[in-house]
Amino acid sequence: MRSIWLDTDAGFDDWMTMLMLASHPGLRWLGVGVVAGNASLPVALANTLRICHHYRLKVPVFAGCDRPLSAPLETAERVLGAQGMRTTGMPLPEIQVAAEGLDAVTALGNALRNSPEPVTVLAIGPLTNIARTLQAEPALVDRIHELVLMGGSTERGNHTPAAEFNIYVDPEAADVVFNQAGLKRRMFGLNVCRQVLLERAHVQEVQSWPGERAMCLAGYLDAYQRIRHPDGRVPMPLYDPVTSAWLLRPELFTFQSARVDIELQGRFTRGMTVCDWRIGQSALPNTEIAMTADGPRVVDAVLQAVRQTF
Ligand code: RIB
Ligand code: CA
């Protein structure tokens, strides 16, 4: 069994990742920390609680940081709307459920301290909560088996020409995380996510699944797949679920060691993950970077895992 902690900014691809974790037979899911990113913290938290309630995910949810370490919060609402995700069908039911009383940074620290084995931390939003946890108690790094993150890119960005969204929202937090001594990092950037493409046919497959929960998911999946073009003719990369697909099917991916630094000052490059491949010459590696994915088989693995939760 692998103990795991999820940190999320609960948009739609985060939702698919959560369903995959719930259906993974080999995971002990300790908790969920929520961070501002796709949407404001209250909205991301409400999304997370609604997903957990509607899909019966038995995992404690903790509210984390509502803004980056130092930058003003910039959400993805210009792309995703104020709710952090859209649907072409029925919305996730509203519920009156509160998060746990503890904040996510304290809760993650407790989980790391109390786990009988080192914990895999899965970060699929800005790294603010993770950085705050490491700043509060650096020794906890010994209790982290590895940090698996969706973020960054070995090539162009998505939120800016140079920066991927999760890193762009809080580059100072990413800088803390990528410079934390003793931490094993595994990065799934845009370069590999762009090999994992959601097509109209995948949406139609999910739309054919029976039941109200599948229908609710299908509406959000439909809207997600149409982000790049209103009729869905342009495939949309799967971002966050690529991390949970690796947990299930690691053989579908290859990795390369590199030194990753976070650009903090660049007028056009702030939030860029600067990858140095000159290992053994001038760069000491600090990250395993996912370089290739068997895209069609990864998408199939994601859909099969999600389907098991209904
Ligand atoms: O750049 C993709 C990332 O930004 C994903 O985690 C998505 O959920 C958004 O947070
Ligand atoms: Ca996310």
Order of secondary-structure elements: EHEHEHHEHEHHEHEHHEHEEEH
Assign the CATH architecture: Alpha-Beta Complex
What's the shape?
globular
| Count of distinct strands | 11
**Mean pLDDT across residues:** 97
Instruction: Count the DSSP helices.
Output: 12
**The CATH homologous superfamily:** Ribonucleoside hydrolase-like
Helix content: 25-40%
Structural class computed from helices and strand pairing: alpha/beta
Q: How is the main sheet built?
A: 9 strands, mixed
Distance between the termini: 23 Å
Topology:
Elements: E1 2-8, H1 12-23, E2 27-34, H2 41-54, E3 61-63, H3 77-80, H4 104-114, E4 119-123, H5 128-136, E5 144-150, H6 165-169, H7 171-178, E6 185-188, H8 190-193, E7 197-198, H9 200-207, H10 212-225, E8 236-237, H11 241-248, E9 253-262, E10 273-276, E11 287-293, H12 295-307
Parallel strand pairs: 1-2, 1-4, 2-3, 4-5, 5-6, 6-11
Antiparallel strand pairs: 7-8, 9-10, 9-11
Helix pairs in contact: 1-11, 4-5, 5-7, 9-10, 11-12
The structure holds alpha-D-ribofuranose (RIB) and calcium ion (CA).
In short:
By secondary structure, the chain is an alpha/beta fold.
Describe the protein.
The protein is α/β, with parallel strands linked by helices. The chain has a single domain (2-307), classed as Inosine-uridine Nucleoside N-ribohydrolase, Chain A. Helices cover 35% and strands 19% of the residues. It has helices at residues 12-23, 41-54, 77-80, 104-114, 128-136, 165-169, 171-178, 190-193, 200-207, 212-225, 241-248, 295-307, and strands at residues 2-8, 27-34, 61-63, 119-123, 144-150, 185-188, 197-198, 236-237, 253-262, 273-276, 287-293. α1 (12-23) links the parallel β1 and β2 (27-34). α1 (12-23) runs parallel beside α11 (241-248) and α9 runs antiparallel to α10. Bound molecules: alpha-D-ribofuranose and calcium ion (CA). Residues 9, 11, 13-14, 37-38, 76, 124-125, 150, 158, 164-166, 239-240 line the site of alpha-D-ribofuranose.
